[in-house]
Amino acid sequence: MKRNLDSFLKEHYSLTSSSVTTPSAPSPKVKVKVPGPPAKVLKSNMVTTTVQLTSKEQQLRRLLLDVAKDIDESGKAPEPIVLRWAGGWVRDKLLDIQSHDIDVAINAMTGVPFAQAMCDYCERPEAMSKHSIGPADIGSLHNVARNPEKSKHLETAMVKMFGLDLDFVNLRKETYTEDSRNPQMEFGTAEEDARRRDATVNALFYNLHDDRVEDFTGGLADMKAKVIRTPLEPFQTFMDDPLRVLRLVRFASRLQFTIDASTRRFMADPKVLEALRAKISRERIGVELEKMLKGDHPFDALQLVHELQLFHAIFTDPTQESLPVPDISRWAVAYTCLDELLNDRDSTSVAGRLITSTDATYSAWNLAALSPWMTVEEPPNPRRKANALPLVAIVSREGFKAPNRLSSIVAASHRNRDEILKLKRAVCKGESYIQERDRFGMAIRKWDTPAGTWRLQVLNALLVEALETLTAWRQEASAEQSKFLAGWKSFLDHLAKLDVYEVTTLEKLLDGGKLAKALGGIKPGKWTGPALDVCVAWQLRNPGETDPTGAIEEVSILPEASYQWKIRRSLFILVTHQHSINDKMPVTDSDTILGALEELLGPSNTRLLHEISEHSELLTEAAVASISVLCSKYRIILDQITLVKLTAVTDPQDPWTTAQAAAAASKLLSKHLEGESLNEFITNTVLQKHLKPLFMKSSSRITASGRPSQYDMIDDWSRPVIEVQSWRTQAPWAEATIQWTVNMSTTSLVKQHWPLFLPVLLALVENESTKTKSRGLRTTREFINRCPAEVLQNTGIGRVFADVSFPLLLHLPSVTPEDESTTILVPAYDVLIKLAQSTGDTNSIERRRLFDKILRDGVFAGYFHASQHTRIVQALLQKATAVINSLGIHTTKHLTPLLSMVSLVMTDPFAVSYPPTLIAATQTMSAVITNSWPRIREAEHMENVARILSLCWLNVSEEIEHGASRTSADINTLLRELAHAARILQALWAHDASNCPAKLTEALKQEPRLSHLFPKMLA
Fold first, then answer.
1. In the predicted model, what is the mean pLDDT of residues 119-127?
2. How far apart are CA 59 and CA 330, in angstroms?
3. Per the database record, which ranges form the Poly A polymerase head domain (predicted)?
């Protein structure tokens, strides 16, 4: 039954104030009527006042009231609709601030149905005529779903009307729990809705029906006093939603209000700060920080953050348990310095030169906010990668979810700060090189990543130096402060004198193609970038020059460019002699060709090795072919150094060689090295002279002589990784060389000289690179193949290999990407299986223990963590099959977890989409049946195995029926493996029909397709 709206309002609010008439010609200006004569007091101590609406707002008000009336008349709401405009619009209206965003609060409906009703109403011709609604006056309706993690606790409807952005929500009250900031939401009254808000000035309503502002919390008085306070008790307010702490900081700085003393006290409460760290998503913290720093008063915002001790709650990495704590005692120096610099935006001022846009201003405030982190020393981490983000950039990314570009600016500012300071101090001291335009220009070009940010990086260096050297930044500049700014002004003026501010947009005289052509047609490659930098530096030294000849001459002396010329020259000499009747070649010519090969593979020129890798298929083949011709036609004997370098091109998987070059190099080595000369070459030349010096400090698991340590060693993590792995930069060819060495070694050689192999193999296996680690494991497996069992056991090197290999079985997704994981897992299992097989006879307890550990700590644990990754599961099952076949009857102890794992794979209907995994699982099942047949014959296991095979067979059959090609190689192989496993199973009851699973007979009657799997059952 409908109720009269007027009686409803009188019943609930008992209005005692006289009505206020809306002016017939409203002014766009707002007139705030704060009580001159006392404002009328309503129930619940509600205070009212009035506002004056613009013509668009008045048009919207009339429309919304008609929509509410239409809903009331239709009976769609449980009680008459009362509409209010809430929050920020009311506050801004009273402060004479223009606002186009209006929150419409509804008492008896949620926002979505009301907004839909409004849109439907606006489509009526009579409504369009009455409210002058044109085609462009109403936008599309958008529903924003409930998302508590993003502070969207109710479904919200959004629509644009008369140029105003409207959000429709219902009045609500909130109930919080201790461990979450996401409240339980219920319909509430206007007073309950007001009291749940963050500040009294944000808790005002404009009642569309009364045309009055309603104040339930004292917001009007606080606005007049310019005070920010919470509607309810502050501590509980902040504990309910700790983000309110940052919102109050933002409103206080934006409105230039002060925060009430009692409210302020609880904003810095340790429990509140801990709740802010624990309960609030970092994205929401980032949103509030961005609004602060993009507002009109970012200095005031940071000052409040500092005073309220909020720094460590905002600027932190919550993903790390133990972080260094930056010293913020001088933080005010940085942000106060920036605020003063921004007061002078003259083109020649510091800010005028370094902060050139609104976006740059925002980035500058972020750098000032993070400045205490810029000086924090990175914690020691031997596994830290060279391109890893510095701690300050991680804090920006994780602490407040800074965008990628901002994090990149922060990282670059940290990375280049020392170099910027070095150049600035050189200018201040008048060093001799400060007139070198190319030095400063190239430095700026290097800093400018991301593009257009080098100025901000210089500003960061200024702010951090101020923080480090000045005790305070005073409003009236001290002599020390003036001297500090003068130094930076001098540096920036010097850059202007050198004319390098726009050096990043310099138009180059040469590009890569033109430069390569000028050097004689050399193919562009990785060498091109550094060569073009040489050209740019030449341009900076010769600013008026347009002829690039001088730049080309400087590039031509670079080893990266001259190398290819040497290769071409050596081929020319060789071809010339091939067409000559003379069988002798001058020593100088042979030296030229051999020198070209040496330069290609020389350990002193590893940078070149990488530079030419993209076209090595031509260069390496040409060089090795040249050597082959020299040896065959001119009978030149290769020296030991050249032979070592040939070993580096024997693996076609390396980027600097090819299959043809590898085959030719292997043939040359075989021809020059036979019998004792091969053994001598491996032990003395390769292992002793070339590899041993590179791997002296490779692993703490072994002694300096290459023997296993007798005590467990604790790694010295303070030792830089670069010291341990320097061989990667000095001699990347070492991987291929040790691989060739192991493959060419005999059992007797390994038995006698195993300590020479151990440091190199461990260095490869313990390397951070996935590719190197995998290659090291494969080489180690070949070494174990050649190493006598008694050496592995008696010397302890078997234990060393096991200790280094077992942790690699945990390189699983998501910590390790799936493709990298399989690259490591397969050879790691191969090493461990080889070790176990070499440990005593088949009944050896030690052998069984190692196989048991491989299954428990490797296969079962790996499947538990990565069962959703099909290729990982495939690899685990393949290795499980090898272990089962090695354990034999002793597999029985693992029967239950094995059957459980195989069952999960084979009965999964989606597994058919990747048949190789099912093939591996079926082969594992066959191995289980074969090696654990006494237990499989038990009824429980027999029925389980039959069930698994049957379900898998039916899944494959359905896949074929739905379009999968039966002729597919994988599908055919899978069907054969399933049939093979079924035959093994049937053999267990071939001589005793009582062992046949009773349920299988029934299943065959119900499902004829199983007759192809168990054909003997129907015979």
1. 94
2. 54
3. 84-229
Query: In sequence order, which ranges of 203-343 are alpha helices (DSSP H)?
Result: 219-225, 234-240, 243-255, 261-267, 270-279, 282-294, 298-307, 311-314, 331-342
Tokens of 265: 């006290």
Question: 876 to each of 772, 825, 855, 905, how far by Cα in Å?
Answer: 21, 8, 9, 12
907, 968: one domain: yes
Indicate if 710 and 755 belong to the same structural domain. yes
Instruction: Please name the amino acid found at residue 648.
Output: A
Rounded alpha-carbon distances, angstroms, from residue 265 to 259, 272, 299, 784: 10, 11, 21, 69
CA distance 144 to 141: 10
Residue 964 has what pLDDT? 55
Domain termination residue (choose one: 616, 646, 676): 646
CA 48 – CA 38 distance, rounded (Å): 10
- 502-525 as b/e: b if 16+ CB within 10 A: ebbeeeebbeeebbbebbeebebb
Up-side HSE of residue 243: CA atoms within 13 Å toward CB? 19
Q: What is the DSSP string of 90-143?
A: HHHHHTT----EEEEEESSS-HHHHHHHHHHHHTSHHHHHHTT--TTTB---EE
* Residue range 166-177: mean pLDDT, rounded: 82
Determine the pLDDT at residue 1007: 85
Describe the crossing of helices 437-447 and 404-429 by its angle, rounded to 10 degrees.
Answer: 160
pLDDT in tens, 356-394: 999 999 999 999 999 999 999 888 776 677 678 999 999
**Are residues 259 and 201 in contact, defined by beta-carbon separation less than 8 angstroms?**
no
8 A C-beta contact, residue 793 and residue 841: no
Q: Is 451 helix (H, G, I), strand (E, B) or coil?
A: coil
pLDDT in tens, 18-30: 333 333 333 333 3
For helices 454-469 and 358-374, what crossing angle results, to 10°?
40
Q: Which of 190, 225, 260 is the last residue of a domain?
A: 225
Domain that holds residue 818: 686-839
| Cross-strand partners of 101 | 165
d(CA 518, CA 552): 7
pLDDT at 177: 57
> Over 60: is that where the pLDDT of 952 sits?
yes
639 and 708: one domain?
no
pLDDT the model gives residue 724 = 44
Instruction: Name the burial class of residue 333, with classes exposed (0-12), middle (13-18) and buried (19+) by CB atoms within 10 angstroms of its CB.
Output: buried
d(CA 620, CA 832): 36
pTM: 0.58
Q: Is residue 106 part of a domain?
A: yes
Distance, in Å, from the CA atom of 747 to the CA atom of 1014, rounded to the nearest integer, reads 49
Q: Which residues pair with 168 in a beta bridge?
A: 104, 157
